[in-house]
Write a structure and sequence with these properties.
By secondary structure, the protein is an alpha+beta fold. It has a domain of about 55 residues. It is about 15% helix and about 30% strand. The protein has a 4-stranded antiparallel beta sheet, with no helix packed on it. It is elongated. It starts with 16 loop residues before the first strand and ends in a 13-residue tail after the last helix.
Length: about 110
């Protein structure tokens, strides 16, 4: 299932959509959250992470509840610059190769 995508730089509480869960026993929809720009169900399907300008987490039981804000202020990220730049180069080349206006690349053998 694909989650709707939104720009993480969007202002909180602007736009978004209401997220509903459908109860298959009672056959009624239940509102889970408002102003949702993106969401993802956790791997074990117990938690739901939503983005409404902030990351929030709540139980994935379809009953809603008060979401708990997730703080990323202490998160650290390690980046291997060499691997990152290799990926950037390969993705850029793939875009040129696949979408260049001349399918023959002006006769240049770029793969050789």
């Amino acid at each position: 299932m694909s989650a709707p995508k939104a720009d993480p730089d969007e202002s909180p509480k602007k736009g978004g959509m209401a997220l509903y869960a459908f109860d298959l026993k009672e056959l009624v929809p239940r509102k889970v959250a408002d102003h949702v720009l993106s969401y993802q169900i956790a791997l074990k399907e117990k938690k739901l992470v939503i983005w409404d300008g902030e990351f929030k987490i709540l139980e994935a039981n379809g009953k809603g509840g008060k979401p708990e804000t997730i703080s990323l202020s202490n998160m650290k990220l390690r980046v291997d610059r060499r691997i990152e730049w290799q990926q950037i180069f390969e993705e850029s080349w793939r875009m040129v190769r696949d979408y260049f206006y001349d399918p023959n690349l002006h006769g240049v053998n770029w793969t050789g």
